[in-house]
Amino acid sequence: MEGTLTTDSVSDSDFLKEFYIPNYILVPDSKSDSTPPPQLPQCPVLVFINSKSGGQLGADLLKTYSALLNENQVFDLGKEAPDVVLRRIYLNLEKLKSNDEFAAKIQEKLRIIVAGGDGTAGWLLGVVCDLKLSHPLPIATMPLGTGNNLPFAFGWGKKNPGTDVQAVMAFMKKVKNAKEMKIDNWHILMRMRAPKEGSCDPIAPLELPHSLHAVHRVSPTDELNMEGYITFRGGFWNYFSMGMDAQVSYAFHSERKLHPEKFKNQLINQSTYAKLGCTQGWFLASLYHPSSRNIAHLATVKIMKKTGQWEKLHVPNSIRSIVCLNLPSFSGGLNPWGTPNSNKRRDRGLTPPFVDDGLIEVVGFRDAWHGLVLLAPNGHGTRLAQAHRIRFEFHKGGADHTFMRIDGEPWKQPLPSDDDNTVLVEISHLGQVNMLATDDCRSRSVNDPSSPSCHDADKDSDEEDSVPAEDFRKFGAADTFRIPDEVDISHLS
Predict the structure, then answer these.
(1) Main-chain dihedrals φ then ψ at residue 238, nearest 5 degrees
(2) Which of 238, 463, 466, 460 is nearest to 350 (CA)?
(3) What percent of the chain has pLDDT over 70?
(4) What DSSP element (H or E) covers 113?
(5) Where is this region: Disordered (predicted)?
(6) Strands 389-394 and 423-437
(7) Fewest C-beta in 10 Å: which of 63, 199, 243, 276?
(8) Span of 120-124, 407-411, 447-451 with lowest mean pLDDT
(9) Cα–Cα distance measured from residue 106 to residue 25, given in angstroms and rounded to the nearest whole number
(10) Segment 78-98, tens digit of pLDDT
(11) Model confidence pLDDT, tens digit, residues 187-246
């Protein structure tokens, strides 16, 4: 087999054939790799690796996967964007499958492995979401970042993986045996006034997360566009957060950008993150964090529990950080929402954090000490609400900026300086995408009785007191994906 390492047994070679995709599927206009037709793989995979993640680990993984599989089914995200790759492969599959049952079966069984941080995984999810296939490609996330919340939520672990042949093959075996699990997508719209002078954006595009800077801004003809404003839109799958926690994250990312040589080890990265939590004042927020930057002073927060009905959300004055959570994994695997007990479900209408119920959990934190309650059994943050939509409206106030974060990627957000100015951030439900989950999956599905049950619901701590189809938006990460009119796309939704 082209590009395959010499293994210790025939069984290993047979195992790898279950994942192997021949060249003529991957490279347009190339000839079939074998005659008679090649063995149909039961789990054909496309592997996307951020070679810059995890220090040297990303580069090492790239070499191992390329040696075990066809090197043309392994992609370095630093060299080729995923939407370009998937566009090329899917156009080729569309041309082949009408006369090639093998190609049709490959398309039906195709899975994705993505190795990188949460931002990288979110990038792939955005691209796959934009393809709008009737059966979207399910994705397995290999942890290669600092927090690794997405992999942890679906049972792939949070420690950086081994990069040797046996470790990679063990991961591939899990991918083959993994089950598909739907999760909610969340669309985020951010609108701010354009500068009165000059052509510069309020935020440098490269400072924004992948899911926002990939679209940059909506076009002038888009109905979301407003004259005099710059409008960004994108998506997320794990969380959106704002306030003190995002400030610490921003300090970490800024330091790593200035001194990348110091961030080659996951343990060192996590230690540095903890130190920055101290130096940024997160543990002594009452002394070092001005009350003018508390969430209630920065923004008016509104939620929509039922379609078309906005209501103002009461946010306690002490809350310095707010998290809008889709998955039960935040800050390296902690679960801020927990599982409300039967009394809270009855009195407040709260539910467990299902990942496919069209609801996002809104949680608040006062400071890092408050956050440490998550380390205790059944601990959780201040549960503020569950909603189908949430809106933050920022007006001129005591702060000229705040910090925001999407799936681990932070940025510094300018706030209004004029009385007639407003910065708007709105989050709404946007369909679903397929993930791959192992038997150790921590996420719960409202439609899957086999997902983790709520054993500890009545031991809950007492620490704290769907959108219409016309509103659906592209995430934009795959904005270059266009299937020509002459290609049969009758199977696409």
Answers:
(1) -105, -65
(2) 460
(3) 69
(4) strand 111-116
(5) 441-472
(6) antiparallel
(7) 199
(8) 447-451
(9) 9
(10) 899 998 999 899 889 988 988
(11) 999 888 776 655 556 676 667 877 776 555 666 666 677 777 788 888 889 899 998 878
DSSP state of 314: P
Pairwise CA distance, residues 272 & 262, whole Å: 10
Per the structure block, which two tokens stand in for 204?
Answer: 């440098």
Between CA 319 and CA 367 the distance in angstroms is: 8
Residue 474 · residue 130 · CB < 8 Å: yes
Q: Does 423 have pLDDT greater than 70? A: yes
Let me know: does 386 contact 361? Beta carbons within 8 Å. yes
E strand map for 329-369: 360-365
Contact 436, 139 (CB under 8 A): yes
DSSP 74: E
Contacts of 232 (CB under 8 A, 6+ apart): 189, 190, 191, 208, 212, 215, 216, 217, 218
Give the DSSP letter of residue 180: E
Cβ-count burial of 204 within 10 angstroms (0-12 exposed, 13-18 middle, 19+ buried)?
Answer: exposed
CB 211 within 8 Å of CB 234: yes
How is residue 234 written in tokens?
């994108």
What's the confidence (pLDDT) of residue 159? 85
CB 406 within 8 A of CB 211: yes
Which two structure tokens, joined as six digits, stand for 434? 């397929």
Residue with tokens 């702060």: 399
Residue at token pair 């009452």: 286
Neighbours of 81 (CB within 10 A): 18
Token pair, residue 241, equals 């957060």
Identify residue 478 by its one-letter amino acid code: A
* Parallel/antiparallel/unpaired status of strands 179-193 and 229-236: antiparallel
CA 245 vs. chain centroid, Å, equals 18
From 367, 214, 235, select the one nearest 295 (Cα to Cα): 367
> In degrees to the nearest 10, what's the CA dihedral of 438, 440, 443, 444?
90
Strand partners, 324: 240, 362
- Torsional sign, CA 310, 316, 320, 326: negative
Residue 323 phi/psi, 5-degree rounding, is -125, 125
Are 244 and 367 in contact by the 8 Å Cβ rule? The answer is: yes
Radius of gyration of the chain (CA): 23
- The set of residues, in sequence order, having a beta carbon less than 8 Å from that of 243 and lying 6+ positions away, is 293, 294, 295, 298, 319, 320, 321, 322, 402, 403
Distance CA 411, CA 403 (A): 6
Tokens 């790759």 belong to 85
Contact 408, 147 (CB under 8 A): yes
Q: Is the per-residue pLDDT at 135 higher than 90? A: no
- Asked whether the beta carbons of 223 and 189 are under 8 A apart, the reply is no
Are 235 and 186 in contact by the 8 Å Cβ rule? The answer is yes
Query: pLDDT averaged over the chain?
Result: 77
